[in-house]
Amino acid sequence: MREAGEGRPVALWALVSVLVLACVVGGVQVAHAHDSRERAAERQQRYADALAAARTEATAFVNVRHDTAEEDLGRIAAGATGPLKDRYVEDADRFVAALRRDKTVTTGSVVWAGVVRVDANGATVLVATTGTRADRTTKGEEVSRDLRLRLELVPVDGDWLTSDIRPVG
């Protein structure tokens, strides 16, 4: 026959072992959840930043006036990078001359924008704009102009800059 208390140390060690294991598993799960939340927050911030940059660049793109052409093209170039920026910087004089010759005035606003793809290396954003255009071909009369644009953006020194902008459809 066993004396009272002989089985307790084994049972106590088993209970302590189970509790320690539960704490370790719980700690690992908390760490994974924390990392997952951080990654989700980073993805969400990247999404929001790329979307805001695309909206800003599209707004600059659809608001160009012959009498403020240098500043307007400067705004487009400021939100651009690579060959797109080079085109707006290097061909600025030619663009300004054409805008002034035709007395071009374009106005517009973004009515919808959506991120197609975003990751740490870049983003693709579709933007819908509505606005007007008046120039020599319209005899100075404003005509409705709705654009659908596809913007490719890349992160550069903490900012999202447009590397390409193209009409869609």
UniProtKB/TrEMBL annotation:
One of its GO terms (cellular component) is membrane. Its main location: membrane. It is found in: Membrane. It comes from the Bacteria. Keywords: Membrane. PANTHER family: OUTER MEMBRANE PROTEIN RV1973. This is Mce-associated membrane protein. It comes from Nocardioides islandensis.
